[in-house]
Design goal:
Blueprint lengths: L4 E12 L2 E13 L4 E5 L6 H9 L6 E6 L2 E2 L7 E4 L11 H6 L11 H7 L15 H13 L5 E5 L7 H18 L2 E5 L3 H7 L2 E5 L6 E6 L11 H12 L8 H9 L4
Parallel strand pairs: 3-8, 3-9, 6-7, 7-8
Antiparallel strand pairs: 1-2, 1-4, 4-5, 9-10
Helix pairs in contact: 3-4, 4-5, 6-7
């Protein structure tokens, strides 16, 4: 069952020599069970840091993160995280890589079944070096989902893929997440991706990272990529990063090339 996520007045500072760098400040956000939230913002605004805090891979300097009203103090087995790189074990076959994700649950889910869900049946005995980039990310997605996480955290998981593969992975993600009902928090630098996937888009400003606006996307799924609502929201988001209507297309390409 999906869990609620609450972020309360979170601040994160890092030591840099003799001084502190504030990466995040005053982060407050509620994510409902089963909601799909996407975080966008310029490079270095703390998007990935926020995901690491939610996952329990790091701890806030101030504030608190609550999962199902309980504080996150360490890595929680109810959460699964997927990164931009597949991070597969090169010495393990595909099936064994997916099975690693099942350690979070007492159940015995089938890696082969999950490989079929992500369209990789027939590649069970392959090694990571024998896969394309998109196929490797499908393995990473199956590994993240096989343990039926209540919260799925995605850190720019499709950023290194070509445009067509990226769209295929987006559709796959929507369908699979709907099937397990997970609460999803995703970080991306791609505004079109955010609007296509999200129930709400969280917009952050440059360091120290703060939430400057949260936009709801009401279009029902499955969405049309040319949906008028998506077209209307896109320039509103880009204005937060200093881009105005006459240069929207080139600005989007420039912004899309950035990475956190």
């Amino acid at each position: 069952m999906a869990e609620s996520l609450k972020i309360r007045s979170v601040e994160k500072r890092f030591q840099n020599g003799h001084s502190d760098i504030t990466a995040l400040t005053g982060i407050d956000l509620d994510v409902a069970p089963g909601e799909f939230v996407v975080v966008v913002g310029p490079s270095g605004c703390g998007k990935s840091t926020l995901l690491r805090l939610i996952a329990g891979l790091d701890t806030p300097t101030k504030g608190q993160i609550l999962l199902d009203n309980g504080p996150v103090t360490k890595v929680d087995p109810r959460c699964a995280i997927m990164f931009q790189e597949p991070r597969l074990f090169p010495w393990k076959r595909v099936t064994a890589n997916v099975a690693v994700g099942a350690r979070r649950t007492k159940a015995k889910p089938s890696p082969e079944g999950w490989l079929q869900k992500v369209g990789l049946d027939g590649f069970e005995r392959s090694y990571p070096h024998q896969l394309s980039g998109g196929m490797a990310q499908r393995v990473a997605l199956a590994r993240a989902l096989i343990g039926h996480p209540e919260v799925l955290l995605l850190d720019e998981p499709f950023g290194a893929l070509d445009a067509l593969t990226r769209m295929q992975m987006q559709d796959l993600l929507v369908s699979v997440c709907a099937g397990i009902g997970a609460t999803v928090v995703m970080v991306t630098h791609d505004i079109d991706e955010a609007l296509y996937l999200a129930d709400r888009v969280v917009i952050m400003c440059p360091r120290p990272g703060e939430i400057v606006e949260v936009m709801g996307v009401k279009s029902r799924r499955p969405r049309d990529r040319s949906d008028p609502e998506i077209s209307a929201l896109r320039p509103k988001i880009l204005r937060h990063f200093g881009f105005e209507e006459p240069c929207m297309e080139s600005a989007a390409l420039t912004y899309g090339a950035a990475a956190d």
